[in-house]
Specification:
- By secondary structure, the protein is of the alpha+beta class.
- It has a single domain, classed as Gcn5-related N-acetyltransferase (GNAT) (Aminopeptidase, 3-Layer(aba) Sandwich), CATH 3.40.630.
- It is about 30% helix and about 30% strand.
- The protein is built from five helices and seven strands; from the N terminus they run E-H-H-E-E-E-H-E-H-E-E-H.
- Strands 1-2-3-4-5-7-6 form a seven-stranded mixed beta sheet, with helices on both faces.
- The model has no long low-confidence stretch (mean pLDDT about 95).
Length: about 200
């Protein structure tokens, strides 16, 4: 069974395009990211050079039940970040949006809500599974990452709790993960909120 039936034409708007992550995105991503970008991420480049970023891309591409995307800024054509569908569960019509980051210059603007709208709309409004649309999308972040938690709540996701000692980080830290979710019943309200944010803000 194919886990997610993607239509790439649906993952783009005038601000951002989500395209399958490839090693060729390494140079752009090296320019977009820095040490702070990966601070809370369990999957990160071993070194901040083209080789390290290419290896990071290949690790993401090799993760089970994961579809990673490059976040491409439409007006410049450059990859400015990464996001993924992961923990794809066709039998339960659920998935997660994660492994997400965007370059510092684009934080706080329309890029994050735009790409979340694209991913969530595709999951909830199209037959991404053979049995139909998703009924649950979840998001997780390091419980220490206050900026990320605020951004997820601003999208409209609901906080579900903290998974303690959930992930062993590269530095040996036992990460607690804050868990959020959106259900298909909640999606119309979440969609309206995201669309309102984008309608009131700049395009890029």
């Amino acid at each position: 069974m194919q886990p997610v039936l993607l239509n790439p034409d649906l993952l783009a708007d005038e601000r951002v395009r989500l395209t399958p992550l490839e090693p060729g995105h390494a140079s752009d991503l090296l320019c977009a990211g820095d040490e702070e970008t990966y601070r809370f991420m369990p999957t990160r480049p071993a070194s901040l050079d083209v080789t390290g970023v290419r290896e990071y891309i290949e690790r993401l591409r090799g993760l089970p039940a994961t579809l990673p995307f490059a976040v491409v800024h439409e007006s410049s054509g450059r990859a400015i970040g990464v996001t993924s569908y992961l923990e794809i569960r066709p039998e339960h019509r659920g998935l997660e949006i994660g492994h997400t980051w965007i370059g510092r210059a684009f934080r706080g603007g329309p890029i994050n809500p735009a790409m979340k709208l694209l991913l969530l709309r595709h999951a909830f409004e199209h037959e991404v599974f053979e049995a139909g649309h998703a009924i649950r999308v979840q998001l997780k972040t390091d419980d220490r990452n206050e900026r990320s938690k605020r951004a997820i709540l601003k999208i409209g996701a609901r906080f579900e709790g903290v998974l303690r000692h959930h992930v062993i980080m590269p530095d040996g830290h036992y990460r607690a993960s804050a868990l959020f979710s959106i259900t298909d019943a909640e999606w119309p309200e979440v969609r309206a909120g995201l669309e309102a944010r984008l309608d009131s803000g700049p395009v890029s």
